[in-house]
């Protein structure tokens, strides 16, 4: 079964590719992340997208 799920980076509905806790990163964005230099302007956007996933899915800790 092919799941169609929103890519958390580019916000397009796309085939499930890289699922992190039920959040998807499409193949295109995944390739961009892999290929980009860390000083590329898109890198920050992609990195923020991934950070959002991680933040949303982290258990709340602290007081
Ligand atoms: Zn995408």
Topology, element by element:
Blueprint: E1 4-6, E2 13-15, E3 18-20, E4 23-25, H1 27-35, H2 41-57
Antiparallel strand pairs: 1-2, 3-4
The structure holds zinc ion.
Brief sketch in words of this structure:
The chain has 63 residues and is α+β, with helices and mostly antiparallel strands.
Question: How would you portray this structure in words?
Answer:
- The chain is an alpha+beta fold.
- It has one domain.
- It is built from two helices and four strands, in the order E-E-E-E-H-H.
- The chain has a two-stranded antiparallel ribbon with strand order 1-2. A two-stranded antiparallel sheet has the order 3-4.
- A hairpin with a 6-residue loop joins strand 1 (4-6) and strand 2.
- It starts with a strand and ends in a 6-residue tail after the last helix.
- The model has no long low-confidence stretch (mean pLDDT 78).
- The structure holds zinc ion.
- Zinc ion binds at residues 7, 9-10, 12, 26, 28-29.
- Zinc ion is lined by residues 7, 9-10, 12, 26, 28-29.
